[in-house]
Amino acid sequence: PQPTYLSDYRAPAYRVTHTELTFDLDPAATRVKARLHLERHPERQAGEPLELDGEQLDLKAIAIDGQPLGADEYALTERGLRVDRVPERFLLDTEVEIAPEDNTALEGLYRSSGMFCTQCEAEGFRRITFYPDRPDVMATFSTTVIGDAASLPVLLSNGNPVERGSLPGERHFVTWEDPHPKPSYLFALVAGDLKKVEDRFITLSGREVSLQIWVEEENLGKTDHAMASLKRAMRWDEETYGREYDLDLFMIVAVNDFNMGAMENKGLNIFNSAAVLTHPQTATDAAFQRVEGIVAHEYFHNWSGNRVTCRDWFQLSLKEGFTVFRDQCFSADTNSAPVKRIEEVSFFRTAQFAEDAGPTAHPVRPDHYIEIGNFYTLTIYEKGAEIVRMLRNLVGWEAFRRGADRYFARFDGQAVTIEDFVGCMAEASGQDLDQFMRWYSQAGTPEIDAHGEYDYANGVYRLVLRQRTPATPGQPDKQALHIPIRLGLVGTKTGRDLALTLDGEALGRDAVIHLREDEQEFVFTDVEEAPVPSLLRGFSAPVKLHYPYSREDLAFLLANDSDGFNRWDAGQRLALLALDDLIAAHRNGVEKVMDPRVVEAFRALLDTDTDDKAVLAEMLTLPSEAYIAEQQPLVDVDAIHAARLFVKQSLALALRDDFLRVYEANRLDAPYAPEPEQIGARSLKNVALSYLMSIEDEEGIELARRQFEADHNMSDVRQALTLLTHSSRGDLADPALRAFGEKWAHDPLVMDQWFSIQVMRPQSDALDRVKFLMDHPAFSLTNPNKVRALIGAFAQNRVNFHRLDGEGYKLLADVVIELNRLNPEIAARLVTPLTRWQRFDEARQTLMKAELERIRGEALSPNVYEVIEKALA
Ligand code: B3K
Ligand code: ZN
């Protein structure tokens, strides 16, 4: 496979103004007729050949302006279809046959639980018909769907239904028209035996929009939360960005087999059922929040992505980074904002930092790719969102909003670039954002070394910041970035933020300084007392910040910092310092001793009377094994596991009564509601329970048992089941797992949780359980949710996946090899943990590389090929 380069971009030779499609649905042989209204692109020469993309299509007929083409007038090529001589403006008619039932890649038109559905982003439309399948070709669509009336009573596509009727042979049809020009990746079709839940929304300008969620009949009771989230998101986008919905109908469909979370097809969003269905008995608080976020995300794409789309796939973050930022702000507004930020950053620093440090590191705007399907990454999405957040903070919300208005107005109906977006922000704010653009082209996580000194005699605080970005594949040398650093100086006497005066300018008590050079010194004057600096407040830039904090400094910030995010981060840093010692002790076979300062800091936390219980729960949560691993030069999975468990148990032993008290104080009898206050109390209670269970405290065990049996809501049940399953006592794990598995055998989304919980257990039988469960009737290798729940989850089980006999690696490689044939996109994602071999000891490196080599020996899809080649480069 050959790479595609950003620098090779050219406008398409021909554009499509209108697309007419007719689908005659059949599982084995669907016929697709396409009539494309084509014309030469004004920027391109006359007389160029017409080249269309097409994969796995069986061409049955082709005509131009009604004249069938002879065999010598067109050619089927590796890419698709070429016609050498075409007029300036013409109609192209084609008819192809495709086989949805054989489509296990879940790209293009495929079958899922008896229904037909599509996934076209990024390049799936070319598996439906011959087409210029690129985002800068935007056309209006008119789509007729024909299907069996009895088995496919519902026939959906983008836009509005304009005609329907019966056909001979017990068939029927519906014709849909989408008046908004769109690229082919936003096309969608759904046909099946579905039921709908309906609601309505009145837009700001008073138009009525019909809202429909389509599901299988048994899921009719699981759509309330998605519907409520959709309405909140529609209102939020009107109030926050002035963006109104633009069709009379907005549909969401839940599909069981789906590669990603969801897809923003115009007027017809298709969702992985896991990203839309909820019920208090089947979905956790986290799942409720995820659904709200994804529903909003896909809805927001209607403007950031659909009305204004990407010129080419290198600009993917233009729509994804911006839309993630929009959904993050929406969720922060509807939930507890500080805890939202803590969750985002804690995930980001674990997963995106690891990606940025690994062999598949790439800039937020890559300059080449082999398979674009491999670039739906944490870097494009989450780092892209962090860049947009920095922009918002740099120019301020008002200028940012003006810039966004300008962007939507100027580029409506167009396919544009990241420069177009940032350009609007520069114009609206009058700021120079040239250096800032490097964030888009430079891969890798910048590291900042900070050093501060207080001059008592003169009341001066000097802060020196040095930045460097490590080399990443293909980018050995990096340039200095423009890094906004929000900070405060916390007075050690008063515990209050001190007034900041920089170069004679008063900046208030919480300010942003701009690091633009490799090294810069900031001199604060009139600093009344010795401070501890609180740096990078709110995670104001996606960087690693090193400052030689003492444990006393960190305990002080944990108690006093006015920035909630940095208070949490101080606690994490403090725990990490203690963990470092314990990891070393474990490796050296020395007795482990708990740092009393951590115990005291936690005791103080447990004594605080806060109304943000969700934040307190986060503060009481130790850094994950994965995050601890990120901080180590070389990952020692066993030492990390042992050290973390030791800290947890030491805290539980020392603070047992406090944890019990917190547990009791946060029990809820009220009916379940996914609301911030309840969610906060539940998280706090369940964190307390996890400490008690870490020492297998008798009272704790009893509480977990009762919580499991009370069956009040899935958050509580899942936490109890997890703790019972992860305990060392088989008499606790097995009965609970059995009861749960029998009760929920009929519900695939709950069975996914049941799979994950068992294969995440730290006991050494986890691998055997994976093998055993792969034969379970509820498991299927062709369902991505199942693969993620069982195999993906096991690969996060650090001690067991990284077993020294290499059996964990071997199992993953076996599955990747099988999925490479069935579903390359999922295979390429699943292999990720093996590609991080550089981080481990030599024995594990050898084992991991051997599995990568074994995969390389197969006939590989472009997806897996690209990842493996990078991993072994
Ligand atoms: N835009 C889709 C991504 C689908 C990509 C599949 N290869 C989901 C989203 O970001 O909203
Ligand atoms: Zn998106």
TrEMBL record:
Q: Where is the Peptidase M1 membrane alanine aminopeptidase domain?
A: 226-439
Q: Which cofactor does it need?
A: Zn(2+)
Could you tell me which residue ranges the Peptidase M1 alanyl aminopeptidase Ig-like fold domain spans? Answer: 444-547
Please list the residue ranges annotated as the Aminopeptidase N-like N-terminal domain.
103-186
Q: Which Pfam families match?
A: DUF3458 (PF11940), DUF3458_C (PF17432), Peptidase_M1 (PF01433), Peptidase_M1_N (PF17900)
Q: Catalyses which reaction?
A: Release of an N-terminal amino acid, Xaa-|-Yaa- from a peptide, amide or arylamide. Xaa is preferably Ala, but may be most amino acids including Pro (slow action). When a terminal hydrophobic residue is followed by a prolyl residue, the two may be released as an intact Xaa-Pro dipeptide
**What InterPro entries has UniProt attached to this entry?**
Aminopeptidase_N-like_N (IPR045357), Aminopeptidase_N-like_N_sf (IPR042097), PepN_Ig-like_sf (IPR038438), Peptidase_M1 (IPR001930), Peptidase_M1_dom (IPR014782), Peptidase_M1_pepN (IPR012779), Peptidase_M1_pepN_C (IPR024601), Peptidase_M1_pepN_C_sf (IPR037144)
Output the Gene Ontology terms for molecular function: alanyl aminopeptidase activity; metallopeptidase activity; zinc ion binding
Q: What does this protein do?
A: Aminopeptidase N is involved in the degradation of intracellular peptides generated by protein breakdown during normal growth as well as in response to nutrient starvation.
Please state what the protein is called.
Aminopeptidase N
Upper classification of the source organism reads:
Bacteria, Pseudomonadati, Pseudomonadota, Gammaproteobacteria, Oceanospirillales
